[in-house]
Design goal:
Length: 220
Amino acid sequence: MIGELFDPRKEFGKAVTEYAAEHPEVVVLSADSGKSSGFGDFAERYPERYFECGIMEQGVVGMAAGCIPIVGFNMGAGLKPRVKALFTKLLTWEALVGFAALLLVEFFPRQLIGIFGAANESAYYTDFAIRAFRVYLCMLPLACVNKACFIFLQAMGKAAESTALSMIREVVFGVGFAMLLPKSFALSGVLYSMPVSDVLTFAVAAVLIAKTYRELGAAK
């Protein structure tokens, strides 16, 4: 005997609506598919938690990604020791991953270059590519820590600090030194711009990291 057939999309919307009754953190982002997906009842019950974005799936995904740090911050409000421990783990693993990548770059540059189909290039090309790998990427551990700091500060709700640090690295130092250093060191200046930017950015990041640890340690 065949049971009653149900529209899986409408059943999904119904299930989410029922779940949302006891979980106020649940929100719905719709790409002009609310009614067909069974979210009509949700929109009527919780209009402040229902966002109709129109036919723009990419925008919906972007909005959802943008909600991650905000939701994560609010869900973890008051759990400062957990945030501090996570921050420590993140910085530690970022540094370790960066160091592992650095070893590959410094000791196996020729093999890495070969991955990009440069095995049959001239000796001059290969020599410069090896030098570029070793110089341009020599501060990978610091670069990884800097990037982790950008993202974690944003997740903590520190948008100003995160944005400032990112702009300092990518625009002030990144673009600035790429334009300035070649005037004194020619083509080598372009290679130096990356590690110099990473070192100086890390100096700024270290101040923000220390400040963040003090704040997390002060709130028990």
